[in-house]
């Protein structure tokens, strides 16, 4: 069965989102924001998440919903995150973090785009047949 264009675009966007997330984590580890053992755990989690686009591409309706639930949970976690005040000596580190914050903000519309594409009428028909 041919994969609809909406599903294909969503899968490409999921891969882009995963790559952006890995880049952010690697830079945060280099800047000392997260510890090495945290980085390893996060990278293992991203490895597990990389199964989702493959399964979605192959028509797994359950993975489509799992991705959506994980994305919504991520939005709530992001909304609940409270930034700590920046000490005066670390203002340079804060300036360096700006591109990472921009990448994080770019992910929000990307995730919304993915969910939209996964739940269009064409996509729903594809997942109901699979």
Would you write up a description of this structure?
Helix 1 (5-30) runs antiparallel to helix 2 (36-49), helix 1 runs antiparallel to helix 3 (51-57) and helix 1 runs antiparallel to helix 6 (98-118). The model has no long low-confidence stretch (mean pLDDT 86). The protein is mainly alpha-helical and 130 residues long. The longest helix is centred in the first third of the chain and has 26 residues, at 5-30. It is elongated, with a radius of gyration of 17 Å. The chain has helices at residues 5-30, 36-49, 51-57, 61-80, 91-96, 98-118, 121-129. The protein has one domain (5-125). It is built from 7 helices and no strands.
Observed structural traits:
7 helices, 130 residues, mainly alpha, single chain
Distance between the termini: 9 Å
Largest sheet: none
Outline: elongated
From the alpha-carbon coordinates, what is the Rg to the nearest angstrom?
17 Å
Poorly predicted segments: none
pLDDT averaged residue by residue = 86
> SS-based structural class?
mainly alpha
Order of H and E elements: HHHHHHH
**Beta-strand percent range:** under 5%
Structurally, the number of domains stands at 1
């Amino acid at each position: 069965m041919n994969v609809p264009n909406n599903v294909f675009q969503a899968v490409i966007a999921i891969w882009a989102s995963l790559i952006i997330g890995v880049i952010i984590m690697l830079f945060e580890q280099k800047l000392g924001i997260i510890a090495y053992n945290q980085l390893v755990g996060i990278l293992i989690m991203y490895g597990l998440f990389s199964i989702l686009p493959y399964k979605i591409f192959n028509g797994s309706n359950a993975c489509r919903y799992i991705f959506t639930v994980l994305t919504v949970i991520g939005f709530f976690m992001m909304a609940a995150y409270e930034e700590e005040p920046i000490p005066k000596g670390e203002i340079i580190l804060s300036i360096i973090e700006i591109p990472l914050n921009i990448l994080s903000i770019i992910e929000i519309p990307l995730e919304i785009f993915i969910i939209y594409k996964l739940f269009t009428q064409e996509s729903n028909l594809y997942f109901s047949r699979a």
